Amino acid sequence: MSESNPLDHVLGFIRTVESGGGATEISPYLAYDFTLTEWPHALSKTGSTRTLQETLTGADHSKNIVANQSFEVVRTTCEGNRVVLEMNWSATLLLDLPHWDAGETIRARSTAVFELRDGLIVSQDTYDCYYTLPEQTAAGS
User: Which residue of 4, 49, 71, 74 pairs with 8 in a disulfide if CB–CB is 3.0 to 4.6 A?
Assistant: First the structure.
């Protein structure tokens, strides 16, 4: 992977996930000690923390859960090796989940905070706000 600034590296990672990248495609972006923390949300009441291996396994498994992922980056903030993205996310569900049926589009407003070291992502903290009512598409809906 060529040298890039932290924002470009994180955006490259997001675009790789968006295009359906699995473990092989996303691993060059992540440090050996990477951790992913998902804070509590509609699909995970307690949240979770995953290691690099768990994250890579999840990336491969996600191909059975969602298709056509889209990340609309609304705002970016960079400070040194910290990158914050505010995004509108959507995907088509391939199976039934609480609040949605297979074939429906699932949407969330998401903020993700990335920490990088030596050009690789060391951690990602994700705060997802899922729109669980069909008419919800933006803040205040």
Answer: 4
